[in-house]
Write a structure and sequence with these properties.
It contains 5 helices and 6 strands. The chain has helices spanning 3-13, 32-41, 61-70, 105-125, 128-144, and strands at 18-23, 26-30, 46-47, 52-57, 75-81, 84-91. The protein is an alpha+beta fold. The chain folds into 2 domains: 3-101, DNA repair protein MutS, domain I (MutS, DNA mismatch repair protein, domain I); 105-144.
Length: 148
C-alpha cells in the first residue's frame, strides 16, 4: 500500500486531523493537511499529479507537533510499516482550529506558477535597469494598498 492510499483511508475517519505518516527517516503529510503544515513551516509543497505532499525529517516531528498543539490543531501520527499503518500518537484539541489553516493548494500552486513565469521573463527579456523600474512600480503599488 502506498502512503497516499493509507492517508486517504484514514482521512475519511479523521477529517479534521492532520495525519502525519512516519516512513523510514521521514514524515509525510498530504492534500489539505499540506496547507496546515505549510501555514506554520513553509516547507516545500510537492505536486505529485494526483495529490500534494510535504515530506520532512522525523527529527522535526516534535517541533511540528508542539506548534500544532500550541495552535489547537488536532493531529494523529501514524507509523507506516509494509502495508500497515499504526497509530503512534494522537492529540485532540479541545477547540480544533484545523479548518482555520486550510487553504486551496491548487490556487497556491497556480499563483506560484504565474510568479515563476514573471520572474523567468524578467530574467531573460529585460535589462537590469528595466527590471529595477518594474520592481519599483510594483513596490509602489503594494505600498499604496498597505500590503507591503
Amino acid at each position: 500500500m502506498k502512503l497516499i492510499d493509507g492517508f486517504d483511508k484514514y482521512k475519511l475517519k479523521y477529517e479534521e486531523y492532520v495525519l502525519l505518516i512516519k516512513s523510514g527517516i521521514f514524515c509525510y503529510v498530504y492534500n489539505n493537511d499540506v496547507s496546515v503544515i505549510y501555514s506554520f513551516f513553509k516547507y516545500k509543497i510537492k505536486n505529485k499529479r494526483d495529490y500534494y505532499e510535504i515530506g520532512f525529517p522525523k527529527s522535526c516531528l516534535v517541533k511540528i507537533c508542539k506548534r500544532l498543539e500550541e495552535n489547537k490543531v488536532s493531529y494523529i501520527i501514524f507509523e507506516a510499516e509494509k502495508s500497515s499503518f499504526y497509530v503512534v500518537d494522537k492529540f485532540k484539541a479541545v477547540k480544533n482550529n484545523y479548518r482555520k489553516y486550510i487553504f486551496d493548494v491548487n490556487r497556491y500552486n497556480y499563483l506560484n506558477y504565474r510568479i515563476d513565469n514573471i520572474c523567468n521573463k524578467l530574467n531573460t527579456k529585460f535589462k537590469d535597469d528595466d527590471i529595477e523600474k518594474l520592481l519599483n512600480k510594483i513596490e509602489e503599488l503594494l505600498w499604496k494598498i498597505n500590503w507591503w
